[in-house]
Specification:
- There is one protein chain.
- With about 50 residues, the protein is mainly alpha-helical.
- It is elongated, with a radius of gyration of 15 Å.
- Helices cover about 95% and strands about 0% of the residues.
- The protein has 1 helix and no strands.
- The protein has a domain of about 25 residues.
- The two termini are about 25 Å apart.
- Keywords: Membrane, Transmembrane, Transmembrane helix.
C-alpha cells in the first residue's frame, strides 16, 4: 500500500509539472477512487475470511 502511494506521488509530480492544477485535480480524483476500491476489496476479502 505504501509503495502505491509513493508511485502515485511520483506520477502526481510529473503530471502536475506538465498539466498544472487541472491535471493534479483529475489525478487526485483517480487516485482517491482507486484507493477506495482497494480498501473495499481488502474489506471484502477480510469478511469472506472471517465468515469461513
Amino acid at each position: 500500500m505504501f509503495s502505491v502511494l509513493c508511485i502515485g506521488m511520483i506520477i502526481d509530480g510529473l503530471i502536475s509539472s506538465n498539466f498544472g492544477e487541472v491535471g493534479m485535480g483529475v489525478f487526485a480524483l483517480v487516485v482517491t477512487v482507486f484507493a477506495l476500491l482497494m480498501v473495499f476489496t481488502m474489506l471484502g476479502m477480510l469478511f469472506d475470511f472471517l465468515k469461513d
